[in-house]
Amino acid sequence: MRVLVVEDEQLLADAVATGLRREAMAVDVVYDGAAALERVGVNDYDVVVLDRDLPLVHGDDVCRKIVELGMPTRVLMLTASGDVSDRVEGLELGADDYLPKPFAFTELTARVRALGRRTTVPLPPVLERAGIKLDPNRREVFREGKEVQLAPKEFAVLEVLMRSEGAVVSAEQLLEKAWDENTDPFTNVVRVTVMTLRRKLGEPPVIVTVPGSGYRI
């Protein structure tokens, strides 16, 4: 899942981003509304975690722009105000969900995951394919009933492949969905991660390399 965190309180923004990355999400961070508009114009995000009171361009205007562009991106709006009228106003702007500050990180994570599921074709909460079961909410993976311990990026790559339901996923698509914008597009990180993932999943291999195209399960 690709997420953009837009929050002018840099310590909070960085903390949220770090926590979401630990949940196997690819996260970009910006600290003002103008930078947010620039990012959503370049990258495809599943979810934007958007503070409402932003410098340069207000969060309301960022939300309006996302809606106007007809993007499948879901918006989780944050605000220091917990008034019902503010929540209603935020939702009427086109936000998909609303979370007042301060918030529990576990609730933020759950809401981001729930919104992320709305950007894709509905699938069962537990993904199953080729003897593998993947639970995105619990971050658990089993093969033939045996639990497999994966690092966050390995989990993210496996989730993207599982959600493709047998379709080929290119290295570029994996890089876009499982890594953030700071990753060098010419790196071999995708190939190395897939190799490690194959090894951890065991024999017989379930991830197939399609020469010149990418990978599939």
TrEMBL record:
<dbReference type="InterPro" id="IPR001867">
    <property type="entry name" value="OmpR/PhoB-type_DNA-bd"/>
</dbReference>
<dbReference type="GO" id="GO:0000156">
    <property type="term" value="F:phosphorelay response regulator activity"/>
</dbReference>
<keyword id="KW-0597">Phosphoprotein</keyword>
<feature type="DNA-binding region" description="OmpR/PhoB-type">
    <location>
        <begin position="124"/>
        <end position="217"/>
    </location>
</feature>
<dbReference type="Pfam" id="PF00072">
    <property type="entry name" value="Response_reg"/>
</dbReference>
<dbReference type="GO" id="GO:0032993">
    <property type="term" value="C:protein-DNA complex"/>
</dbReference>
<keyword id="KW-0902">Two-component regulatory system</keyword>
<dbReference type="GO" id="GO:0005829">
    <property type="term" value="C:cytosol"/>
</dbReference>
<dbReference type="Pfam" id="PF00486">
    <property type="entry name" value="Trans_reg_C"/>
</dbReference>
<dbReference type="InterPro" id="IPR011006">
    <property type="entry name" value="CheY-like_superfamily"/>
</dbReference>
<dbReference type="GO" id="GO:0006355">
    <property type="term" value="P:regulation of DNA-templated transcription"/>
</dbReference>
<dbReference type="InterPro" id="IPR039420">
    <property type="entry name" value="WalR-like"/>
</dbReference>
<dbReference type="GO" id="GO:0000976">
    <property type="term" value="F:transcription cis-regulatory region binding"/>
</dbReference>
<protein>
    <recommendedName>
        <fullName>Transcriptional regulatory protein CutR</fullName>
    </recommendedName>
</protein>
<feature type="domain" description="OmpR/PhoB-type">
    <location>
        <begin position="124"/>
        <end position="217"/>
    </location>
</feature>
<keyword id="KW-0805">Transcription regulation</keyword>
<dbReference type="InterPro" id="IPR001789">
    <property type="entry name" value="Sig_transdc_resp-reg_receiver"/>
</dbReference>
<keyword id="KW-0804">Transcription</keyword>
<feature type="domain" description="Response regulatory">
    <location>
        <begin position="2"/>
        <end position="116"/>
    </location>
</feature>
<keyword id="KW-0238">DNA-binding</keyword>
<comment type="function">
    <text>Member of the two-component regulatory system CutS/CutR, involved in the regulation of copper metabolism. CutR suppresses a defective melC1 gene, encoding a putative copper-transfer gene, probably by altering copper metabolism.</text>
</comment>
<feature type="modified residue" description="4-aspartylphosphate">
    <location>
        <position position="51"/>
    </location>
</feature>
<dbReference type="InterPro" id="IPR036388">
    <property type="entry name" value="WH-like_DNA-bd_sf"/>
</dbReference>
